[in-house]
Structures
1.
Amino acid sequence: MRRRSTTIEVAQSIKIGDLSADTVLAYSNHTQCAVVVPLSVKQSMLALFRGRGKSTIRATVQVFAMAVAILLKTAASQASRIVIDTEYTGYEKDIEGMVLSYLRKAGAKVSKDVIVFRAIGKSSEAHRCAIDVHRQKRDPDRVLSLDDFEELL
């Protein structure tokens, strides 16, 4: 049986490392889904990884990868391509490895060649979804908690 060709785009509004506001991550394919990472959760997770000796950028990239995996957990197995908006230039391979690891830990079956990084632009439905949630024009599908992240540790 052939898998249907499905591309999922992933975008972020307010970077994980920006500690002035909540972060919104969203995906879009034939549907849309958005999750919010509250500021307090970002602060706690970044502090956890910094306490384990990770640099600020490494901690940020790890929290981002975890949030992407949580966002995609139910949709990733059906995707033929996952396009993640380029957010952390130079860390794409690290993010890819972490996202795959976290997705597999969550039970998703995803091959390595499915994930790609590129600028998806402001016209992307994923970008619009993330912005709409950030601007409170749309409700998020889920607000993440520390427990969601701790399940992946």
2.
Amino acid sequence: MGMWRPLPERSAKVVRAAVKPVIEDLLKNAPSVVRSAALTVAAKYGVEESRDVLFELSENLQISVAERVEVIRTLGLMEDDRLIQVVENSRADKTPEIRAAGNHLLTLLNPEEGVENLGEVLISDSTLIEKQAAHGSLGAMADPSASRLVAAE
């Protein structure tokens, strides 16, 4: 009693094979908590079968803002030509959290343009949420222009 016996790390291949038949249904129809866990699995193990659903969910107004932000962050970990469309749609959204997630995704796709965009966010009348997220995104970047922008603030 009281002994901790952790399981060994699982192979990504095994995890992907296990979730492949159910990931789409989990992302579309599961309760919020389960959807969040499915997003974590999709991001951590690169479950390709989740891509199309994630793109749909990134614009789904029926799920919570927090879930949409998590979907956008998960998409940022994947390589796909459609990501720029997610950036554009997110940055045009009426919700500041979604716009902030879109701005961060832009820094991942195109750091130079992302830094320029975040600089504009910081000097504009953007919401506090967006400005705080911009500082977080800039602080996480290794780009020297991001460091200069933060130092100039």
3.
Amino acid sequence: MKKTIFLAIILCVNLACTADKSNKKITIKNLYSIEVPSGMTKTSAINSDASLQYQNLIKDEYIIVIDEPIAEFYNALEGSEVSQDLQGYYDIVVANLEMAASELHITDKEDIKINSLPAKLFTATAKVENYDVFYKYCVIEGQKNFYQILYWT
């Protein structure tokens, strides 16, 4: 049975204030729901692994969600020293971010619950292709999937 996960993420870091502060709820594959700012538009050009991709090119804001079956993650880790839990998933996510960006600084890391599900939320700044990038990142352990929610500007 697929459980719908409702993820209400309000992006408080709105660098370019606009009069339109409403959100729209998006549901993906009956796996999860998320609210994104109504000024964002759907795209498929950001990340081929993402099940959700939205952007606001005028404000240079992007959000993606990647969902991955937990069993596949554990199978891929077989024989490695990475822990097979949310912490291990977080460690892999951060390692991948470190490979993609330079001058990575992670701050405000906290363990939280989203709809009773364990999650890790953190903020990061980095350089990507000579651009300064601000990230708000959340990794969540669902019943059957891990989820990555990544917002950046």
4.
Amino acid sequence: MCSSDLLAGLLVLGVVPGTLAPASAARCTAPGVKTATRQATAVFIGTVESASTNPSSSGSGATEITHSVRVSGVWKGGTRISSDDVEVVTTSNTRRGCPLGKLPEGSRYVFFARADGDGWRVARDDGTAPATAALTDRRSEEHTSELQSPMYL
């Protein structure tokens, strides 16, 4: 099999060369902070403490991962976050959307979340990402009055 046949096979399978990730992952683009904040029910920073995996209840074959997250700051939706421990659900093994998969325990993330029952649901294309200085620094050019300094819990 020549390399062009292998490349064609990977593309047919939906794999982007060099990543071994589904081609849909290449289409996952997070919005800017202003847009992500406007679209989210809540925006908060927290540390992943644990995760458990369950088959999706939708029958899609996707896997849902429920993460226990310790919230340390809230930018938006503070009245809806009644505890500093919240559940955040991500998905993996799905052909639709932009799943985040299982988040590493001990990692800090900024969550741009949608309410989902008593917990929160997030995806890569809603802006949820590791809590880097560039994302959390309120002086960043992209941050406006919509995303002020967080209220720390």
